[in-house]
């Protein structure tokens, strides 16, 4: 009897190749899954980073808005204090009765917002004023303001417009709650004459570091209408 022999080598090779392909597919699948997982993780982290960056930007915007509001409030407080300081000085001067009431009214209208009058003295129409301004320009503005206080047929006023060679002058009236009228030049006379800067000294505040100008003015007051 003849024995039948079967060569199994090709079958084993085929199985090996099949297993190799399956292994490669498994490895490729693992790599793809890992890459997809990494991409998903990176995408979520990037989205979170973007969300947090937006929150930081929004928070900073709110902080900037609050800082602006705080600055405006501080500015209002500063202006309020300036007005209160001026009112306190004027109230003190009125209580001291160191000069006629009309002089106080005229002086009040001439004081610019960056000038503070510390005291004044009046003897026989001769007036001396001392105070502090934030700059020399503020002191000059005060002097121009004094020169613009005038008597009109309707009482004390302040010149708001004076054109060169014009016959009429526009004046804001003190007694008429700020009404403005035109008057003939010949009907007006200055309340303060001979306004002169006697001294000015610029100093720096050791606490705030801001410069200020101490000044003294002399002038003559005209109380006659």
Written description of the protein model:
49% of the residues lie in helices and 29% in strands. It has 225 residues and is of the alpha+beta class. The strands form 2 sheets. Strands 6-5-4-3-7 form a 5-stranded antiparallel β-sheet. A 4-stranded antiparallel β-sheet has the order 1-2-9-8. The radius of gyration is 44 Å and the shape is rod-shaped. The model has no long low-confidence stretch (mean pLDDT 81).
Task: Show the helix and strand layout.
Elements: H1 9-96, H2 101-110, E1 115-123, E2 126-133, H3 136-147, E3 149-152, E4 155-161, E5 168-173, E6 180-184, E7 189-190, E8 192-204, E9 211-221
Antiparallel strand pairs: 1-2, 2-9, 3-4, 3-7, 4-5, 5-6, 8-9
Helix pairs in contact: 2-3
Portion of residues within helices: 40-55%
What is the number of strand segments?
9
What series of H and E elements makes up the topology?
HHEEHEEEEEEE
Question: Structural class given helices, strands, pairing?
Answer: alpha+beta
Mass-distribution shape: rod-shaped
Radius of gyration: 44 Å
Q: Between the first and last Cα atoms, what is the distance in angstroms? A: 160 Å
Low-confidence stretches: none
- The number of helical elements comes to 3
Number of domains: 2
Sketch the major β-sheet.
Answer: 5 strands, antiparallel
Q: What fraction of the residues are assigned to beta strands by DSSP?
A: 25-35%
Widest β-sheet, arrangement of strands: 6-5-4-3-7
The chain-level mean pLDDT equals: 81
């Amino acid at each position: 009897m003849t024995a039948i022999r079967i060569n199994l080598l090709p079958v084993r090779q085929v199985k090996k190749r099949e297993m190799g392909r399956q292994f490669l597919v498994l490895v490729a699948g693992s790599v793809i899954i890992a890459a997809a997982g990494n991409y998903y993780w990176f995408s979520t982290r990037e989205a979170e980073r973007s969300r947090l960056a937006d929150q930081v930007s929004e928070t900073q915007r709110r902080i900037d808005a609050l800082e602006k509001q705080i600055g405006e409030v501080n500015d209002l407080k500063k202006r309020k204090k300036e007005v209160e300081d001026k009112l306190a000085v004027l109230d003190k001067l009125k209580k001291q009765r160191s000069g006629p009431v009309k002089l106080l009214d005229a002086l009040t209208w001439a004081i610019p917002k960056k000038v503070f009058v510390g005291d004044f003295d009046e003897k026989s129409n001769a007036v001396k004023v001392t105070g502090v301004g934030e700059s020399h320009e503020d002191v000059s503005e005060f002097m121009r303001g004094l020169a613009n206080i005038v008597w009109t047929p309707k009482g004390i006023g302040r010149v708001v417009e004076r054109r060169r060679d014009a016959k009429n002058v526009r004046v804001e009236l003190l007694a008429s709650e700020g009404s403005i009228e035109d008057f003939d030049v010949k009907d007006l006379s200055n309340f303060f004459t001979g306004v002169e800067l006697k001294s000015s000294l610029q100093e720096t505040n050791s606490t705030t570091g801001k410069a200020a100008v101490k000044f003294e003015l002399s002038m003559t007051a005209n109380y006659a209408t």
